[in-house]
Amino acid sequence: MPAFAYHRPASLDEALDLLSRFGEDAKILAGGQSLLPLMALRLSHPANLVDISRVPGLNEIVEDVEGGLAIGATVTHTRAEEAEAVHRLTPLVAAALPLVGHRAIRNRGTVVGSLAHADPAAELPAVALALGARFIAVKSGGQRRVAAADFFSGFLTTDLAPDELLLAVGFPPQKPRTGVSVKEISRRSGDFAIVGLAATVSLDEAGLIASSALSFFGAASTAVRVTEAEEALAGQSPGPEAFEEAARIVSQSLDPPEDANGTTAYRKHVAGVLTRNALADAIDQIGFAA
Ligand SMILES: Cc1cc2nc3c(=O)[nH]c(=O)nc-3n(C[C@H](O)[C@H](O)[C@H](O)COP(=O)(O)OP(=O)(O)OC[C@H]3O[C@@H](n4cnc5c(N)ncnc54)[C@H](O)[C@@H]3O)c2cc1C
Prior knowledge:
By secondary structure, the chain is an alpha+beta fold.
């Protein structure tokens, strides 16, 4: 580890003061499951760590009156995974959480930390993008909301300023007649995905596809939605023909990076296969005949 000064603020104001004082020279420490490995590898060397784990009020999962859900900054993956409200109100989040690393990582790592870290191969940024999540960012003297579509700006990069803390992530209510699915392929269970997909499909009253979200991870420098395929699905009868066409568009549109885990062509092909399977799974949950 490179040397650093450790700060453990006892209040949100104190944490924000520290961030404002140190700016670029500070990093927030939540569960440490991404930041500490990066520091151990000397890929990140902040002079100050601001540990938010003891800040009161951040470890909350809150239902809003409209049927949405907010998850606070220090809620761990495990806590969210075990929360009844997460399963009831945000089934896509519930489906993704067991795929985040291993149990030991989920016991310490936080939902919001994963979003702030913005790994393009991580499940939760793709889920946030699929659901149109909203992020609440605070700094000394100010608070703002950022839509997921504007939050992830590049590889491990977000719209957050160095003196901002992500207070919570808010997920909107799920539409009626909606099914969800998260599919991924990885070398071993618990590994980061080589490529994966967080999908939602909503049907109208006649049983046709009203809207969908096809949000991929491990397929670009950020989580990415394939809107062309989503548009092609709108108004279609849910079934193999529509799913096949969406899969074709996905494989054609994505231009994933090549690395030791897979070529671009392999990832494009797998993304198409996952699309077909995820759409069929999601529709099955709604109970309409596909
Ligand atoms: C072996 C291993 C396997 C893993 N597999 C997966 C996987 O399959 N899928 C997956 O998604 N992840 C995986 N991870 C990563 C990990 O689960 C998450 O990235 C992690 O949980 C992030 O949350 P954290 O609380 O640990 O964040 P930290 O490591 O504490 O912080 C991560 C980054 O986010 C910033 N940050 C944290 N909280 C805030 C906040 N409230 N406001 C602003 N910035 C903040 C930090 O400053 C830092 O830059 C794996 C990790 C390991 C070690």
